[in-house]
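USER: I would love a firmer grasp of how sequence relates to backbone shape in proteins. This is the protein in question:
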Amino acid sequence: MEQLPLSTKRHSLSHIMAHVIQEMYPDAKFAIGPSIDDGWYYDIDFIGNKPSDEDFEAIEGRMRELIAADLPFERTEKSIADALAWAKEHSQSYKVEIIEELAAQGETMVSFYKIGAFEDLCRGPHVEHSAQIDAKSFKLTKIAGAYWRGDEKNKMLTRIYGLAFEDRKALAVHLNMLAEAEKRDHRKLGRELDLFTFSDLVGSGLPLWTPKGMTMRLLLDEYVWELRQAAGYEKVEIPHITRKELYETSGHWEKFKDELFTIKTREGHFFAMKPMNCPHHTQIYKRRKWSYRELPQRYANTTMVYRDEQSGEMSGLSRVRSITQDDAHVFCRPDQVKEEMMQIWHIITAFYSVVGFSLRLRLSFHDPENMKAYLGDPALWKQTEKELRDMVMEEHGEEPEIGIGEAAFYGPKIDFMASDSLGREWQVATIQLDVNLPQRFDLTYISPEGRDENVVMIHAAIMGSIERYMSILIEHYAGNFPVWLAPVQVKLLSVSESHGEYCHSLAAEMKGKGIRVEVDTANDTVGNKIRKSTQEKVPYLLVIGDKEMNSEKLFVRERGEREAKEWDREEFIESVIRMSKERK
């Protein structure tokens, strides 16, 4: 079978599925159906009846029949006028809107693809014949709602998702991974392990952290601060709201005003909930004049920001409205940029090595064909990106991946991509190089010659969003957190009521030495207590009975082991303390 780009096959499957939908639901109106990382989706407006998961088998069966028929994908071009006539004749209102938008952009001709009885406005590419696709390499997976063009003011469409891979074996591997991922779903484990909760009264996308979840957040953030403090950072704090003028100056208002939560005071003043911290930090720097000798200034700030995410896009901790950022900003001279960025790089490497993530680099650059999405001069962007690429090449020793259009709107960045225990890749830490905000806020230092020179600003987030990072960690470990990160490290289980006092005494001793301990003295069988604690994924369980009360030995059941092992009491306590300190 001819090797074609997988994205081409996925896009072609989107059209083959649409062919079947058109047969089964003749009144359906089609919006867009792109390929995505693991397959495709198609957004469709169904008039009256619409499919459910129970219809997937029939849809897939008909798709396989079309693939086996080896139907050609035929490309044609139509003028804008002919394309509009076609869309109106077939009552495809979403295609009318797309064609009119293309016309407004100056397009005079548009391409269509036809397979069997289904014709669609599309740029392609597609396979030449349907039989070039392995008929067992795909699977329909779910139906969701999606606003047309992602705007909640528009109509809610039905989005049908499909998976597609090179062949049936690759699909099977991916399906096995998804089954394992479902078991590890952080939303499920978060409830079971009592880490966080959501309340309808508080609102969607606004997680509430329990004592156990907060323990983990603090442990992670304290480690980031330990690394930053050693590198010369200082803590700052900022308010959660600001006058909109701050974001008008920074450029955030123009770019993101529709995503901000806004507040109007009784006196008529207009404020916004902060969606990011960098503009506030510029004002801390700007409080006085700085000599070149006093740079760099390094500010660290773990704080919440707020973004008005759409309801349909929020998912557990992965995407929320209240986002905790472990944010930092460095204000430095141009000749200090490399050293400062390398220092942040080393912090990131140290932090992620503890959890065993392997990191891959991506340079995120601007899209020169869409300069309206960015601040600043195109020539300055090119210069800054070249400097960043050269620096990464020198340090990394190989050509980095470039993500065009992935830059922040004020500057290019280094994104660190982490692979978890299931082989899934996540964008985690980021280092952003910024010469635009210092210019907009007139952030300067006094040069050796006594002139005012603009500083360079470096944005650095190690975890990025703590909420999102927690979701990744929960699934990476399947809730089996290492000893240093486990919210409860040791659990003491009493055999009977007479052993309760000793359990609490031993727990107090351990807590006094910094160990996180819980005690279960409930009137229940030891077997039930062990089962409950095993489900809580506590690293160490200690059953306390007469034998343990009268001995300096402890019988310790380690997570994942069926049998308890005998430990010297002091040796066990010192072992837990050591693992906590060494983050193991």
